[in-house]
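Consider the following assembly input.
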Amino acid sequence: MSTTRSTLRTHWVALRAMLVLTLVLGVGYTAVVTGIGQFALPAQANGSLVRDADGAVVGSALIGQSFADAEGAALPEWFQPRPSAAGDGYDGGASSGSNYGPENADLVAAIGERQAAIGEADGAAPGEIPVDAVTASGSGLDPHISPAYARLQVARVAEARGLPETEVATLVERFVQGRDAGYLGDPTVNVLRLNLALAELVGD
Amino acid sequence: MEVLFAALQAATLALILALLYRPLGDYLARTYTSDRDWRVERGFYRLIGVDPRAEQSWPAYLRGVLAFSLVGLLLVYALQRAQAVLPYSLGLPAVPEGLAFNTAASFVANTNWQSYSPELTMGYTVQLAGLAVQNFVSAAVGIAVAIALVRGFARHGSPTIGNFWVDLVRGCLRVLLPLAIVGAVVLLAGGVVQNFAGFTEVQTLSGGSQQLPGGPVASQEVIKLLGTNGGGFFNANSAHPFENPTAWTNLFETVLMLAIPFALPRAFGRMVGSNKQGYAILAVMATLFVLSLVALSALEAAGRGTAPELAGGAMEGKETRFGIFGSTLFGTTSTLTSTGAVNSMHDSYTALGGMLPMLNMMLGEVAPGGVGSGLYGMLVLAVIAVFIAGLLVGRTPEYLGKKIGPREIKLASLYILVTPTLVLAGTALSFALPGVREDVESTSIWNPGIHGMSEVLYAFTSASNNNGSAFAGLTANTPWFNIALGVAMLLGRFVPIVLVLALAGSLAAQRKVPATAGTLPTHRPQFVGLLLGVTVIVTALTYFPVLTLGPLAEGLN
């Protein structure tokens, strides 16, 4: 009898502890962090939004977006991001990698097709195509490409826009971001920021 | 150059952890040995009706752990089932029974396996009132159990091992909450979002549209790592730029995962009255960590396999900003602790590279392991190691002045049998049970052939060791996996806790045995090597056969 009562009492203590901790750690803590974010760091807390010259939001600096037509075909006048496995591509509501294993035949075929498409569009041999251009990222929302892949696309973009190649090449170099602190991670180019500058360059 | 940058990044991490080791370890030791309560804590004890000075025997301590976890399980389950009527649910419906059970078990067991895609399943209220709270308290429970075991070594002739409610509250309020607030501000500065805006539709630059997600992410991200939980706010977990925006946040997130597990050996050393004992445990953990990190990094940088060789490298499932080493550093950290967060898709690692996260978990997550669970796992292995040493020289084994007798060695042996049993039985049943096998092969497995078997092995390894990472191609939201993995997570968490607390009670009751000339010193390199060997051999003997059926077969093919 006394064991039953003590077991019941322990659960009653546990329930009260869980409810108080939910208030403190669930509600209170989240509110404090939200308050700090919204008052002290609102730009980051609200998604690092990127605006065009007219002030319209065109996306987030941290979230990659698609530069393809409605059928999914790459638009040659924009720098292309990496392949994406998020939804139909860069779906911000469905972040995901492909999860294909290293021997998966579908992945091997997809890499081959991507190399062929890029080879045709950018006039590159398979060996010259950077690895990030033909592989999907972990999130499906990778905002970056490698500087090598950005440089590979210069001639195509310049031709599609009727711009001198040197001007586009200069723009790319301006958007090459080095490693954090000089040694963390890999060098990158933010595709949205680069394309936004490109659009402003020709003023369309 | 790549190797140099990688080495520099690893050195930075090591330096930060070295600087944290003493202050954080000492702070942990003080937190759990102080007899002074904060004013807010006294209010808390009055509210829940416990006397903070009342010491508990090990069964009473255990009843507290189990009752608290059961209540947590029911609450998280209820919140998910009631999601449709909760505020800030983003219009999402109630979570179905099987999935709700799996998720509740997963977060209470500090596993954070996710059979679901968060963006499409969990509203903000379930995330913050259910899941984030478990991120705190399941971590605090883990530390409490480890501290109870340390008290077993530190106390002599004592019938009690502490007070669970005090350890729980102090872990939450003195350790996790302050660190989480500081960490959240750092992540916010790096670009992690924190709002209640839901999805925002924007017009993209090329004229399309895109849904940008929002949510209270920073607050949850930091505790998911600090508490070695690992459940992502988003499906892509820490690969998602809103969870882990830059290369430096990536390094900071590895620090968050490792800070407490690597500082606990110091707290242990302090509490048993010999810092050298803490350094010995630290040396074993750090050696295993470095070996595993180097192996995974080398394998991914080499990029063997049909797809990586065709593409020119193993970047499938990896983010540009982290690169190969930022990915392998995070992956190693996450699977050698019990975090299970991912910043790159382990399913897409090279065949042998993908085996490393599995091996890390199979080691029992002791290098440095989850918050608390890593230390108690390593101390159990230390008990086994002194026993083996005792057999070799024909003496009664002792550890820290306590005799390792039949009762202690039985408890330790049972401990190391629990997770292998769950892993191997779960994997075998998935392919042996008629009906289940067809479902596993047709619905769940994503990659065909050998790699598909690895997905199932990974799932049971992750669940039973309370890690939570996945070969995520596996569709685990099926009746079989939801129930089987849910049971594996609960047994993999709480059966070892029962054994550890029983061991704590039995050690605390013993009087101190004076050290003699025949006592094996447990703070010297000799013992570090022995413990290292025991850890590796126990794992290798248990899992080698099943690894040859999965990643070894794929990688050596």
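The beta strands of chain A are 49-51, 57-60, 144-145, 176-177, 188-190. Ask yourself how this observation constrains the way the partners meet.
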